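Reviewers asked in the last cycle whether our approach scales beyond single polypeptides. To address this, we selected a multi-component target totalling 438 residues and predicted its structure end to end. The input consisted of the following lines:
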Amino acid sequence: MAPKSRSYQLSATPFVIFAQLLAIAVTTLVFVLYLHFEGGFAFESEDKTKIFNVHPFLMVLGLIIIGGEAIMAYKIVPGDRRTQKGVHLILHLLALTAGILGIVFIFRFHNEIGAKDMQTLHSWLGIITISLYGLQWVLAFFAYCFPGGEMSRRGTLLPWHIFVGMVIFLLAVATALTGLSGFSNLLLSTKGYILNFTGLLILLFAITVTLTVILPRGY
Amino acid sequence: MAPKSRSYQLSATPFVIFAQLLAIAVTTLVFVLYLHFEGGFAFESEDKTKIFNVHPFLMVLGLIIIGGEAIMAYKIVPGDRRTQKGVHLILHLLALTAGILGIVFIFRFHNEIGAKDMQTLHSWLGIITISLYGLQWVLAFFAYCFPGGEMSRRGTLLPWHIFVGMVIFLLAVATALTGLSGFSNLLLSTKGYILNFTGLLILLFAITVTLTVILPRGY
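The resulting structure, written as structure tokens, was:
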């Protein structure tokens, strides 16, 4: 990743398009999994699974898919940098909100079934991810929006903003994989395959988003 | 990651040193976990856990730690590029061998306890990782060692070699996290904490190795 982006001799455009196809595929699988196989969603229900289901739904489609689109905003959105920045900022706020809600629902689920919180590596990774996500959003808002730092400072900060942002995004993906893998077993037949393929497609989405960050804009 | 490495205004050296401390910490935790808590290692034993233990041991210390050192060779090894390349190539071969052996041991363990293979997301991610690792090693050997491509071709290929290499390394890390998280639960008290902290330290090692790739050599 060290060499200049030009040296890849490709533009981000084909990967931006591929990422949209992957986003559609992941969204479809998540809906099939949690609506068809797992009985849907609920805030209150006798069937506690419905409360649990909100957690992976918000995490995958909110934090990861919308978060990924936010990252790609600079390569997708036509027009000036101001518009791109606005889309980047708002999509990340949406993703962060979905992530926080998703965590609220898993605590709620644990509370309903009387399970202890924060026991697993998945939960530790998740709390670290959401904390860094929030921190990164707030710091970047101060530095790049309001009140906004000096231009030279912004420039110095930018590579670190991008690096830390990518670390947080890939951390979210790794956390999702640990979460999905806790339930994945082909002994569950169709459901197991859907879980495994959801994991693989999320991974492919993450790789594609990373490529669009490295490669130059195509138009 | 798109901007030039100079713009980070830091050299890789402090991160190379930090990575060594993390490598020592992970190695210590893995030894404590599998020797003290899990009863050690065996190729044949009535205690099947001892056969299983070889798998995470080889994967974490072989594929991830030695693999990470191989990646950092260009920032660690003093002397000319030829020496660095030799160290990079040999350490990756060691890591790959450890990875293949680690997979042999998990198939052996499944066979001994009569479990089905390749059921989980962890196993799918693992097989993909080791296949890509082997492919990347062989292709890079042909391109950069023997017979070796034209100089201009090597240059064109290099950013992709680095990008694909980092994808494989981070894939190995994500796979390890899904593996560890399958056993992590603080209800296991001390052992649970060791598992979770091993996961976090592996993650920190991965981030640090990635930084050393992006940042320029310090001396």
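Chain B has one domain: 9-214. We regard this as preliminary and will revisit it once experimental data from Aim 1 are available.
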